[in-house]
Write a structure and sequence with these properties.
Elements: H1 20-25, H2 34-43, H3 45-50, H4 55-61, H5 64-71, H6 74-91, H7 97-101, E1 108-112, H8 128-143, E2 147-152, E3 160-163, E4 169-172, E5 184-185, E6 195-200, E7 203-214, E8 217-223, H9 231-234, H10 245-265, E9 270-276, H11 283-293, H12 298-307, E10 309-312, E11 323-325, H13 326-333, H14 336-340, H15 344-349, E12 352-355, E13 358-362, H16 363-369, E14 373-376, H17 379-388, E15 404-405, H18 412-415, H19 418-428, H20 439-442, H21 450-479, H22 483-491, E16 498-503, H23 519-526, E17 533-538, H24 546-559, E18 568-571, H25 576-585, E19 588-591, H26 603-609, E20 614-617, H27 622-625, E21 631-634, H28 643-667, H29 677-693, H30 696-713
Parallel strand pairs: 1-2, 1-9, 2-8, 9-10, 10-14, 14-15, 16-17, 16-19, 17-18, 19-20, 20-21
Antiparallel strand pairs: 3-4, 5-7, 6-7, 7-8, 11-13, 12-13
The structure holds pyridoxal-5'-phosphate (PLP).
Residues 127-128, 131, 504, 574-576, 579, 601-604, 606 line the site of pyridoxal-5'-phosphate (PLP).
Length: 722
Amino acid sequence: MLSFFTDLPNHFSLPRRINRLGELAYNLWWTWHPDAQRLYRHIDFALWEATYHNPVQFLKQVSRARLSAVAADRHFLDRYDAVMRAFDEYLHPESTWFRRSYPAVEGHIAYFSTEFGLHETLPIYAGGLGVLSGDHLKEASDLGLPLVAVGFFYTHGYFTQRLSDDGWQEALPVDQRYDDLPIIPLTDADGQPLTVSVELPERDVQIRLWTIQVGRVPLILLDSDVPANSPADRQLTARLYSSELDLRISQEIILGIGGVRALRKLGCKPAVWHMNEGHSAFLTLERIREKVAAGMAFEQAAREVARSSVFTTHTPVPAGNDEFPIWLVERYFARLWPELGLTRDQFLNLARREHGWGETFSMPILALRLAEQRNGVSELHGQVARKMWHFLWPDRKENEVPITHITNGVHVDTWLARRLALLYDHYLGADWRERMDDPALWEQIDRIPDAELWEVHRHLKRKLVAYLRERARKMWLELRVHPVQVVASGTLLDPYALTIGFARRFATYKRASLVLSDFERLLGLLNRPNMPVQIIFAGKAHPADEPGKRLIQEVYRKVKLAENGGRLVFVEDYDMNLARYLVQGVDVWLNTPRRPNEASGTSGMKAAINGVPNFSVLDGWWREGYNGRNGWAIGEEREYDDPAEQDAADAESLYTLLENEIIPLYYQRRASDGLPVEWLARMRESIRTVTPRFSTRRMVKEYVERLYLPAMRAVEPPEATA
Ligand SMILES: *Cc1c(COP(=O)(O)O)cnc(C)c1O
C-alpha cells in the first residue's frame, strides 16, 4: 500500500471513546460498508440525511449531546468496535488476492481518468465513465492491487439539475468546500502544500495535489485553484468537460503531464499506466520526454512507453472521442516537439486524423499508438472498436486489429441492497463475497425461499416510493414549484404497481423517448384496472448538449399530462444516491440505446444483481448477459441503415413484449400464497447469471491478468525485441 506524508485534517471534537469516527470519515471505505454508514445514521438520522451522507460535514455539525449519548450506549459501542475492527483488518490485511496470486510482481499501477464516481457527496463525475472508474478503484482496493489513481478535484463539481415547469434543464453550480469533503491536502515535510508545475502557452501553471483515500487505494486529485495562478488559470480545473477548446486542452495537459509529475513528486514508480479513455493520453508524451531527456532515442522511448501502457476506449460515438484542431495543438505543444527530438510533422503524425474537411489531433489515436494493451468494454464494443480503428492497422484484417475487450462490471458492495446482502449471508454462506465471481456459488440462489426474496424486494420498492415522495414534499415545501411538477416528481407513485426504471445520461442515442413514441398505446397500458404500470425517468444532459436537453423536455412534457394519472415520473438530479434507490427498488430496468452505440452500460448490471430483470436492446453488455430467461431483449440483433426504421422496429418490439409478456407475468400470482413465482424465477436468474460475470471482481481480475501483468512484465524489455 502506498501512503504519503499527510496528517488527517482535524475539524472535529469527538468523545475519546468514539474518536475514530473522524478517521473513518476520511477513508471512503465506509461508502461500501453499510455497517459503517449506519453508525453515523444512528447518531442523528435527520442530520445524516441533511448532510446528504457526508460524514465530514456530519461530524462538524452533530450535537455534543448526541455524541455523548452514543458514547455511553453499550449497543452502539459494540457496533462501533466491530466496524473499527473490520476497518483495521481491511487496512492491514494478512494477505490479499493480488499478493497471493502474484507475490513477485513489483511496481504500481497508475490509473488515470477525468472523472471518478465514488459517492454522491463528491460530484467529480458526470455519468457512467466516472462510476466505472470509481468502482474500479474500490475493487482494486478490495483485491489488494498496488494501484494509485489520478484525477481532478473540480472545485465546482458537476452541476445540480433542476427542471423548469416546461421541462427545460437548468444547471445549478455546485460549490465544493474543501473543509466539508474527505479530501486531504498533500504536503511536504515542512507542511507546505505539494504542487507541480505545467507549461501552458506563455506561462507556467501551478497544480496543487490532494488525495482521497479509497480503502487501500489513494486517488490523487489535481487542482489549479492556487493563489500563484492567474484568476483565469485558477478556474482551469473548476468544471468537468468544458466544450471550450482552450480549457479542454489545458485540462488534458494538466491531467496527462501534470499527473505524471504528481506521481514523480510523490516518489511513486508505476510499472503500468492505464489511460481510462483518451483524455489522459498526453501522459505518454510526458513519459517519452523524460526518457529522451535521460538520453534515450525517441523510437526506443516510445516503444518502452507503449509496452507499459494500457488504453481503454469507452465509446463508439464520435462526440465521445476527443480531437483538437491542429492550430491549437501547435500553440500548446510547439515547445515540446524539439524536446522529444521530433519535427512538427513527426509530432503531429503521432495522432493525426484525416477528415473529409481537414485534419485534427486525435486523443484516442495518440493513446492507441502509444499503448500496446488496448481494450473496448464489451464483446460487441470490441468488434465495433476494431472496425472503427481498422485504418490505423491497414495491413491487418479487421478481426486482427489489436484491440481486445474486457466487459465492464459493477462493484457489488457499492450497489447491492443491504437487505439482499443479508439474505446472501444467510443462504449462500458468510464468505460469499470472497467467491462472488464463481458461477458455482450462485447456483445456490435457489436456497432463498420465494417468500423471503419477494419480501425483501417489496421492502426496497416501498423504500424507493417513500423516498421519492419525500423528495417531492421537499420540493413543494422549499421550492414552491408548480403543483404539476410535484405530481411529475412521483407523489402519485403506487408501491404495488409494476414499476419500470429508466435512468441514465440523456444522450440522444439512448432514446429515452422510445417508450413514449406511441403514446396512445402506452396510455392504454398505464392505467389498466388491476395491472397498472408506472415508469420512472431520471437523468442529466450535458449542459452544452442541446438535443439532449430537448429530449428531457420532450419526456417531461409527456410526464406532466393528466392522462397518465401520475404514472409517468421524472426525478430530477440523477446521481449515485438516486441510482442506488432506483436500481434496488424498481421491478424492471429499461434500456433502449440505438445499437451499437452503447459501448457497455453498467446501470443494468446494478439492477440485475439486485434481482431487477433487464428489458433492453441487445447492445453493450446485455448482448452478452441476456440468456432468454434473465430478462427481455428488445428488437433484433442486427444492423440497420435507416435509424428511423430501427426506432420503429425497436418500439414495436418494446410494446409487444410489455403487453404480452412482462405485464401479464408480473401480475400472475400463485393462488396458494399470492406470490408471483414465475416473476421470482426471472429475478433469481438475473442474480444468478449477472452477479458473477458482471461484477468488477471479474473485471479487475481480467485487467490484471490480461493487460496489467503483460505491461508490468515488459518493464525490463527483453533484448531480442529491442
Ligand atoms: C451507473 C450509473 C451511470 C451509468 O449508466 P449507464 O447508462 O448504464 O451507462 C450513470 N450515472 C449514474 C449516477 C450511475 O450510477
